[in-house]
Design a protein that fits this description.
Elements: E1 5-8, H1 18-33, H2 39-43, H3 51-58, H4 63-77, H5 87-96, E2 100-104, H6 109-118, H7 120-123, E3 128-130, H8 143-152, E4 159-163, H9 166-175, E5 178-182, H10 190-194, E6 200-202, H11 208-211
Parallel strand pairs: 1-2, 1-4, 2-3, 4-5, 5-6
Helix pairs in contact: 1-4, 3-4
């Protein structure tokens, strides 16, 4: 095995949440700002900084209102959340092989727990979950990835980080771990991911087994 530790992003990597994230951004900006913002602009910073910082980019004067509106719309949608097709089988196989697994996400603990409640099989394989509340700095800063490695007692050279955003790739490279970009999240384009120079790009979950 190439990497004894494998870390995963959550949104768009493990869970198929792109559509509900976009819907919630649209709802928040339409209801609070009363204007239409292009989808590309709404999602441009998603996957890196906290939701608070993402809303600050959209309108610094109305951050709290935007965050509240987003969460009120987003949290009920978790009841129909699904895992990305095929990814749970891969995660289970990686665990069976003896890999140590973790999640590094920009979500809050409470929102991660919503996903786990709907998808109980997602919780079991992961020893560590690092959220936006666990570090001062956020992706693409390496701190969240390094924090996960520290909690696992793992070295960067033995680890890989799998994610669907350019911020995931940036964080992985800055932390000195193997950076694997996945394209099935539907939030960021393959072209945008490749601009961050990941070590590998995969289009289907089963391809992860070969690159890891």
């Amino acid at each position: 095995m190439r990497f004894s530790t494998v870390l995963f992003d959550l949104d768009g990597t493990l869970i198929d949440s792109g559509a509900m994230i976009l819907s919630s951004f649209r709802h928040a900006t339409r209801s609070v700002l009363r204007r239409e913002i292009p989808d590309e602009q709404l999602l441009a910073t998603f996957g890196g900084s906290s939701l608070l910082e993402q809303m600050r980019v959209l309108d610094e004067a109305r951050v709290e209102e935007l965050v509240t509106s987003y969460r009120q719309h987003n949290e009920p949608l978790h009841s129909e959340l699904q895992a990305c097709a095929g990814v749970l089988d891969v995660v289970v196989e990686l665990g069976r092989q003896g890999r140590r697994l973790g999640i590094v996400t920009a979500k809050r603990h409470s929102t991660v727990e919503l996903a786990f409640a709907v998808l109980p099989p997602l919780r079991e394989p992961f020893e560590v979950v690092v959220t936006a509340e666990d570090t001062e700095r956020h992706k693409p800063d390496p701190e969240p990835v390094l924090h996960a490695l520290e909690r696992l007692g793992a070295e960067a050279g033995t680890a890989a980080y799998v994610g669907d955003s350019p911020f995931d790739i940036g964080a992985a490279r800055a932390a000195g771990v193997h950076a694997v970009a996945v394209t099935w999240g539907g939030i960021h384009t393959r072209e945008r991911l490749e601009q961050e120079r990941p070590d590998a790009v995969v289009d289907r979950p089963e391809e992860l087994l070969a690159v890891l």
